[in-house]
Amino acid sequence: MQTMANTYNGWIDWILNTSQLSDKFWHVQAGLAILVIARLLLRVPLRSFLPLFVVIAAEAGNEVLDRIYLGAWNWDDTASDVFYTLLWPTILTCGAFASARYPGLSEPPKWLRRWVIRDEKTSEEQD
Fold it and tell me: pTM of the prediction?
């Protein structure tokens, strides 16, 4: 298991050193990429919580491999990694779920409706 953690961490170090971007940036990107890939492979809508659970499992695996590599938990780093990885997938999933569950959320608020551009056919069909 230590060999796998060393290899995995070598890839992570290579990505960070090559890109010159922070690991928090990559946690955000990885969370979103895993969410989209899981959604496509599982063939479920974004409002399903299953792709989010895949992101959670992947992040848990990442943190376990970090723990094995480092030999101890680094709780500050672990907490921020989990936060940055799960933030946008959670927001997108909950937003899609709420939009499907409460259709009124898909409509613009009354004060904004007059500025919303509507398709000609849609407005004719509604009349």
Answer: 0.81
